[in-house]
Design brief:
CATH class of the largest domain: Alpha Beta
Strand order of the largest sheet: 1-12-2-9-8-3-7-6
Structural class: alpha/beta
Shape: globular
Radius of gyration: 31 Å
């Protein structure tokens, strides 16, 4: 890499001194910055440079730069990453799921993982590496143990777009090799540039060797055995090349064998043909790990099971050749994967690729620059709207159309990119790559034309910047003037400390080496986009499909995007701008149309909902086969969840989520000690918060008025109910939808804890709760039932709150009106109508939604029917009653659902209760 700036070199030195310390505090960072600063000041920069291992010549830093080093390192060490969520099959749960972490790992030198971990220390914060270690341990535990005689494991790992999935499966294959997997196949994307990029990353993180030169982990430790790799960055797998290696003996060799192959029919057939000829080496007796990157693309069978698609069939054929196989699918858009028919089987290639054994949902680090952050509507700084009229001539273009001009907004985007490079250089990031994405078409001819026009514009800027160092050069050059105008408009008033004079001087330095790169099927190898290790790349990248999935653009800060599609998964994958932007997130901008912005907003909601479903399933101890997937289908949008041929086993259903004037209660609770303890903590955490901000109002019940909505939302997220349909669009008690409604309406709450409904005390109290030592629990005789089949506790009467319990929230004036209203109905014969009218009167006059907390005595359940761990002091539940007000009325919503969801709806239909009965 080009010589690093003194800023980068000193920051790297300080980080090296810090990284091996445990529990690094903020003060530790600034103490080390001060120590190095004082050391340099004592002996001068020149002498200090001589003491460095590489004798890098350092130049003096300003006080601001020293302060910036401390701030950047503080941000680096603040990054956190939570452990993911695991969903196991019943069969997997019966296996030893600690075979690696509690056994093999302890008796293994873990050569491949240990050097990969050391390799990551310069790149990732300590907490992220720690969690990566934990995540990969869990995933490997759920795979087969190579020492077993036979296994067939199918799993899936789900992560966010551009969030580090490659880094995760690199760690996984390192540990798999340590554990004894002899044969590892990575099926990369279906395009050459993605396979090549993946190959390079795996060479750096696992192999450690490229063209006889040690790289990456190979520079850290070469004491172990170098893996044998049959593919290179230039060459995919070829049967003839593999057959030349006649010495390959799987029975006696100690090296793991690695292939990084393109997801291509010819390559997969060639691999299977070669493996068929290796039976003399008993290759089928050894364990194979197949990692399927971008597994929702091309791997899915989109035909009938008796005639599966070729790539799907070839992957299944590959797995069937081994007695011990683990298949792990990686994707950020798993809609198609969970739509796979779990029971589909073919006589020649066995079961389909449904993740029958486990699903692992990765979390994203706190510094992830993702869809939720960009399109949530909370911050518009990243988004620049393109006027539809400006690009009307491009929207429905054909491959042979001639484009003679670029949109004005694209010129502005290019100007922003030049400014971004300059600012990053001024921030000391001179050795970092910089990229701009232009994604306007799927046609190669159009890419070429756009590249030509962009090149013309850049050449004019290069000519003008010959005089760029002159004072007020922006007044004498139209092109520099536009860049200056862009700086004033987009940067000068947004806490950007760099000045125009310094920015313009920096542009003059690098503009000559700025590259315009096309990325498509006709790109020649010598003209391909390459991020080298020895020099930084500054490139404007124009492409379409080749940039739509998996491929990473290093240092991407500006994206110009007008390409559209009707599919959730495809559109989300096109967002190459997701990822990590350390030290320059404030510079990032995405140019797109209003319609695209709205489409991404829909997709963000659907994706967050899907991840919520994964989390619920993990908490509820469900299995992949239980996955009742329901993905929202927005009627006002033309978007589809995934390609129609990947939705063969699904149906579109309409679910009503109306809360206006409705009472929703948590009537089913999971029967585990942990969950009840969790719910107990959630209740008392809420109580402790509200008692600090509101006085209790009520003689016989605990009652608080006008409590802020955030307290209730936090409570709902923490409390765990029993989910019957395994989906966040649960029709029986839709917690997630209630949370969203509260967020949209910004509704404060009244909160009540009811004493015994009959006004009697059972002389029991909640133990060890300060301020609630004498709290009397209500008696609910013969209403609570333990269901041994579903392992849940339910309420026999399908109701907890007695009568019109919500009337407690009415004002004194409304209560008086209620009494009068009840008198008017006393002599009427229609008792059912009377109850309905009174209930409607109450809910129409409620000022706010009411949260009812219930602390219940379970002694009425026969102890003989309870598992030992459920002999607890109390059970916790709650209900929410919404006012009869149009603001709580929601429209019916359409969902694309799989067969499991449909079956569950049918099975549980009789359990739905009607409040009016």
């Amino acid at each position: 890499m080009k010589s690093k700036s003194s800023f980068e070199r000193i920051k790297e030195l300080i980080n090296n001194n810090l990284r091996d310390k445990k529990d690094i505090e903020k003060q530790d960072i600034y103490d080390e910055v001060e120590r190095i600063k004082n050391s340099i000041n004592k002996i001068t920069y020149n002498l200090f440079s001589e003491l460095l291992p590489d004798k890098t010549l350092l130049t003096p830093l300003s006080e601001k730069e020293w302060d910036d080093i401390g701030k950047e390192l503080e941000c680096f060490y603040e990054v956190k990453l939570e452990e993911g969520n695991i969903i196991n099959s019943k069969k997997n749960k019966d296996r030893d799921l600690t075979w690696w972490s509690n056994n093999e790992k302890l008796n293994n030198n873990s050569f491949y993982w240990n050097r990969y971990e050391k390799y990551l220390k310069d790149k990732l914060p300590p907490n992220v590496i720690y969690t990566l270690n934990r995540d990969t341990d869990i995933i490997l535990n759920n795979m087969g143990n190579p020492k077993e005689s036979c296994f067939d494991i199918r799993g899936m790992v789900v992560g966010h777009v551009q969030s580090g999935k490659t880094g995760n499966f690199a760690g996984l294959l390192c540990k798999a090799a340590d554990a004894g997997y002899k044969f590892i196949v990575i099926i990369a994307g279906g395009i050459n540039n993605l396979r090549n990029q993946t190959q390079k990353r795996i060479e750096e993180s696992f192999v450690g060797l490229r063209k006889d030169e040690y790289i990456g982990v190979g520079r850290i430790d070469r004491s172990g055995i170098t893996p044998i790799c049959f593919t290179t960055a230039e060459n995919d797998f070829k049967k003839l090349d593999a057959e030349k290696n006649r010495t390959l003996d799987f029975d006696n060799m100690k090296s793991p064998v690695l292939l990084v192959i393109k997801k291509n029919t010819t390559t997969l057939k060639s691999l299977n043909s070669w493996l068929s000829g290796k039976t003399k080496n008993k290759i089928e007796e050894h364990a194979v790990l197949v990692i399927d990157d971008e597994s929702d693309y091309a791997s899915i069978n989109t035909k009938e099971e008796n005639n599966p698609t070729i790539i799907n069939k070839q992957i299944r054929k590959l797995l069937s050749k081994f007695k011990k196989s683990s298949y792990v699918a990686y994707t950020a858009t798993p809609y198609a994967n969970v739509f796979i028919d779990n029971y589909a089987e073919h006589k020649d290639v066995e079961k389909d690729l449904f993740p029958k054994d486990f699903i692992y949902a990765l979390k994203a680090p706190t510094d992830y620059f993702g869809a939720q952050r960009i399109f949530s509507g909370e911050n518009d700084d990243f988004l620049q709207e393109i006027d539809d009229e400006e690009i009307s001539y491009l929207v429905k273009h054909k491959k042979d159309d001639s484009i003679d001009k670029l949109p004005i907004s694209l010129y502005e985007a290019i100007n922003c990119f030049l400014i971004n490079i300059a600012i990053r250089h001024l921030r000391g990031q001179t050795s970092k790559h910089n990229s701009m994405l232009i994604h306007m078409s799927r046609y190669t001819n159009i890419h070429k034309r756009i590249a030509f026009l962009v090149q013309q514009y850049i050449e004019k800027i290069k000519e003008d910047f010959v005089y760029g160092s002159l004072p007020d050069s922006f007044k004498h050059s139209q092109n520099i003037g536009r860049i200056h105008e862009c700086f004033e408009k987009n940067y000068s008033n947004k806490n950007i400390k760099e000045t125009w004079d310094n920015v313009s001087k920096e542009i003059q330095k690098f503009i000559k080496v700025l590259q315009i790169k096309e990325v498509h099927s006709e790109t020649k190898r010598e003209e391909a986009l390459e991020y080298r290790d020895d020099v930084p790349t500054n490139a404007i990248v124009i492409g379409g499909a080749s940039l739509s999935r998996g491929f990473t653009l290093e240092g991407l800060s500006i994206s110009y995007f007008i390409r559209t599609t009707v599919f959730y998964d495809t559109l989300l994958q096109m967002g190459r701008w997701f990822g990590y932007r350390p030290g320059y997130e404030d510079l990032c901008k995405i140019y797109l149309t209003k319609a695209l912005r709205e489409s991404f907003g829909y997709i963000v909601d659907a994706t967050e909902d899907l991840l919520e479903q994964f989390e619920i399933m993990a908490k509820e101890n469900k299995t992949p086969s239980d996955f009742g997937l329901a993905v929202i289908q927005y009627p006002e949008s033309s978007l589809q969840i995934t390609a129609r041929n990947k939705q063969q086993k699904t149906e579109l259903v309409e679910l009503q989520m109306n809360f206006e004037g409705q009472l929703r209660e948590a009537l089913r609770l999971s029967a585990t000690q942990d969950i009840n303890t969790n719910n107990r903590n959630a209740v008392f955490s809420l109580i402790n918060k509200i008692t600090k901000v509101s006085k209790c109002d009520g003689e016989h019940n605990y009652f608080w008025r006008n409590i802020q909505d955030s307290y209730v939302r936090e409570f709902l997220k923490a409390f765990k109910t029993h989910v019957l349909t395994n989906s966040s669009v649960e029709t029986f008690f839709p917690v997630y939808e209630i949370i969203k409604l509260i967020e949209e309406t910004k509704s404060n709450f009244d909160i009540v804890i009811f004493q015994d409904s009959k006004g009697k005390s059972n002389n029991k109290s909640i133990a060890n709760e300060k301020g609630f030592e004498n709290f009397k629990m209500p008696i609910r005789n013969e209403t609570i039932v333990y269901d041994d089949r579903d392992k849940l506790i339910r309420f026999k009467n399908r109701k907890i709150a007695a009568g019109n319990a919500e009337k407690i929230s009415l004002s004194e004036e409304k209560l008086k009106q209620l009494i009068q209203f009840e008198k008017e109905y006393k002599e009427k014969e229609d008792d059912k109508k009377e109850k309905g009218e009174i209930r409607n009167f109450i809910r129409k006059n409620m000022e706010r939604p009411l949260l009812m907390l219930h602390i219940l005595d379970i002694s009425s359940i026969e102890e003989s029917k309870l598992p030992e761990f459920l002999k607890i002091e109390a059970l916790f539940s709650y209900g929410i009653c919404f006012p009869l007000n149009e603001k709580y009325k929601t429209q019916p919503m359409q969902f694309r659902v799989n067969q499991v969801y449909l079956n569950t709806l049918s099975e549980k239909e009789d359990e739905l209760y009607d409040e009016e009965e």
